[in-house]
């Protein structure tokens, strides 16, 4: 038996039957070449969890490690192939982009549809529809079919609905990966409110710093196997250790490089270590070099270039004027930023660059380029920055 907001799994697993090597053409199939074979892939296996009411629980792991499959079992979308699962109370979920939407229906109609799935009465939606649409910032699009929506708009609507159905358990899969920064910040603050109100949250992300910020405990999956379970910092340390050992590509903040068209474009960007090696993974305290190239379509005079550094949730950690820029039409200009010591402790980061004309006109607004990760195996420090210093006990005074 479970109480409201509680999640219990025992030996939970799900497999998929994969068919490989089938005939590739009609001729092959007539000649019975390319014999078809099937094999079972365990996407998730052997997961034992006890998530308590009010807990915020993170699931981390590489792409393909089974995070989404596990969450879909918790959401009741996939039935488990083996093991047991019990959840107390109403479950709200925001899984893959667009899941649960009917593309021909309008945004508003989809709110009703989604609410009905969760057993929310129509009268409640009538009363809250404007609020939901406003939260999703979709006022102008509420009566357009959602097939015309961008992925960010889908996510905003999905998030607005899931937060308004008052779930006891909320399941979020990579929600912070899409949508603009302002909305992500709004999501995070809403998630904090939900946590504060005592809701249970299961949060899936390949982004360790978001998990670190939100979760009390976490599970690390590796090829479907639970390999670490416990306090978030311990689990993330193991995640980083494995990632560093695999030497695989970094967890990138966003491969999305949002760039508005303008008279100045961003060209190639690279990040490199003090050894000059171009890479995206750094160890805390290393020396670091960023190289960027800007390309001018038209003449630029007395413009100002500001470079920003953000963490994975989009929070601006630093923004500073880098240079005054003068460019001839067609000119490509390289800039280099050298940091003798990365001031970051651990997490995923990216840069932004804006170039502004003296009259304030934006010439370039490039965001989330040159993503890189910083690793630390240090268990004493938590958070994105290393504060340094030490706490000294002062002499006791009695009053
Ligand atoms: N519907 C499906 N059919 C077949 N294989 C699937 C299906 N969904 C997921 N998988 C496989 O299960 C494994 C885990 O996938 P997934 O749960 O999406 O991982 P993650 O969310 O951690 O990236 C992957 O190897 C994936 O290819
Ligand atoms: Mg996934």
Question: CATH superfamily membership of the largest domain, which one?
Answer: P-loop containing nucleotide triphosphate hydrolases
Radius of gyration, CA atoms, in whole angstroms: 24 Å
- Provide the helix percentage: 10-25%
The major beta sheet can be summarized as:
6 strands, mixed
What percentage of the residues does DSSP assign to strands (E)? 35-45%
The H-and-E topology, N to C, reads as EHEEHEEHHHEHEHEEHEEEEEEEE
The dominant shape is globular
| Uncertain spans | 247-261
Instruction: Tell me the domain tally.
Output: 2
- Overall mean pLDDT stands at 83
The third-level CATH topology of the largest domain is: Rossmann fold
Structure description:
With 399 residues, this protein is of the alpha/beta class. It folds into 2 domains: 7-246, 3-Layer(aba) Sandwich (Rossmann fold); 264-375, abc- transporter (atp binding component) like domain (Coagulation Factor XIII, Chain A, domain 1), CATH 2.70.50.60. The protein has 8 helices and 17 strands. The chain has a 6-stranded mixed sheet, sandwiched between helices. The N and C termini lie far apart (54 Å). Residues 247-261 have low confidence and may be disordered. The protein binds adenosine-5'-diphosphate and magnesium ion. Adenosine-5'-diphosphate (ADP) binds at residues 16, 41, 43, 61, 63-69.
